[in-house]
Amino acid sequence: MPVALAPGALLLCRAEPAVVRPVAQLLREPVLLTAAGEGWSVLIPSYERRRAGADPVDQVLTGWAGALAIGAGRPAIALWWDDAHAGYTLAAGFRRPVGYVWLADGTPLGEDEAMRTFAARLALDPVHDVAALDALTRPDPAADARVRLLGLLAVLARTGIHLPDGIAPGEPADELRAAALEQGAETIEWPGLRDAARPGLAAAEADPVSPAACAPWARLVGGAQLAVGLPLTAFGLARRSGGWTAAGAILIAQGAVSLAYDRVRAHPGGRCPRD
Questions:
Q1: Cβ burial, residue 60 (10 Å; 0-12/13-18/19+)
Q2: pLDDT tens digits for 93-119?
Q3: Which residue, 147, 170, 187, sits at the end of a domain?
Q4: Whole-model pTM?
Q5: I want to staple 258 with a disulfide (CB 3.0 to 4.6 A). Which of 6, 78, 191, 222 is the partner?
Q6: 209 plus 183 within the same structural domain
Q7: 193-207 exposure pattern, b = at least 16 Cβ within 10 A, e = fewer
Q8: Which of 187, 206, 227 is at the close of a domain?
Q9: What is the tens place of the pLDDT at every residue in 127-168?
């Protein structure tokens, strides 16, 4: 009989911590951030504060993975588990997320096509890696849900992922966080929308001749991001969905930065060459 797992999760993003940090602030959830191998970062969220009646862990993590992918512009993978299920979700930009689920005893519940889409979006080897992923979709009495997630990570290791010691799927949230803190992970918290957008605004002031500042479509991009971000944030707040709220907040922050670039470009003192 498989061991029941306390709810927990890991968020992997195909970017260095410096790229992930400002986006992670917008998740509106205290998380720990550290490197996870070459070109990857891992976020460890806390689940001790999950309220009764909150969205299931898979729904929350799907929203967060989508927010990371939109904000960082890089693929993000959520690994999640609880006492009944475990699974993953891959988010890449605005494309529909793809994922797979196993019961606690390792029984596959997903569709084989999801694994092939997963491999294609991460540019994994279409022969060897896809074969290894397909094996995770077949019955195996010796492989419970935790073993399935470890098998997934073994395939992802070929892309450069290497989780720090003590950080692995299936571990209780408090133990994951303790292990991360011992190895120097930094704590990321929501600073408020104004402060979260400040790094991008500072960049616009410091470099008004950057390509983004000089692009004639900066105002259109910023307006579109705000137009999508505001209702998305409202939807997330109404649903009490941290993931959708974070995705909306990220779009609002990025839209504000894009409009700031446009304003700097138009300022009489700006150094941006006119078309």
A1: buried
A2: 778 899 999 999 999 998 889 999 999
A3: 187
A4: 0.76
A5: 222
A6: no
A7: eeebbeebbebbeee
A8: 187
A9: 999 999 999 999 999 999 999 999 999 999 999 999 999 999
